[in-house]
What does this fold into?
Amino acid sequence: MVEYGRRFVRLLGLLAGLVASLGTVPEVTAGYLYGVDVSSYQGSINWSAVRNAGISFAFTKATEGTGYLDRYLNANIAGMKRYGVIPGAYHFAHPSIDPTAQANYFTNAVKNANGGNFHGLLQLVLDLEVSDGRSASQVWSWTQTFCARVQAITGRPCIIYTYYYFWVDNVGNPSSNLNCPLWLAAYVSNPTPYIPRPWSGVGWAFWQYTDKGSVSGISGYVDRDYFKNGGSYPNINALRIP
It folds into this structure.
């Protein structure tokens, strides 16, 4: 995502085996939609300008652990909806804190920000990129519990945001994807070799390809993303909560 500390942690894993292409827009076909992901790091966002820049969807940070609520969550969701950007929200996971408590905190915050329901939002995102010193088996157990709780509350599986080396080294490379679409962080021109094995058959649904993006309406750098329209899912609306 976007905070400096989190970016550093993620890049340690990414740069260990990837050749970064920060700031470079990979070649894509017409079947891709453009997106961004944001947090309080970006400050106040002009969502009208973002939409006019060709952005179709966005994820905003909602919560972290059980005590952090992003101060721009409500404004970002409202702005996305007002100007026709498909809205999504993510939770930065801390496997050292009870997963059910985090899932409850996350879903409650997003529900309140969306007018008391989840209608129209993209399936909620588990941002999985730190282990808090927990073993791979502990992180995997934590992930299963968190995702099950989110699905029980929203009626839909999570989207899992992660990167190849974290999944292999810190989650233990489990073979199940829990029926969760993949949002892959991979700063390369071709992300296919870096898809973790549970998604090898379906591929990524979202791909974060840089954290050095620039978009009208957003100050400074912003993470840029693609959705593979017509790939594993018929279109992005298939991943929206009814």
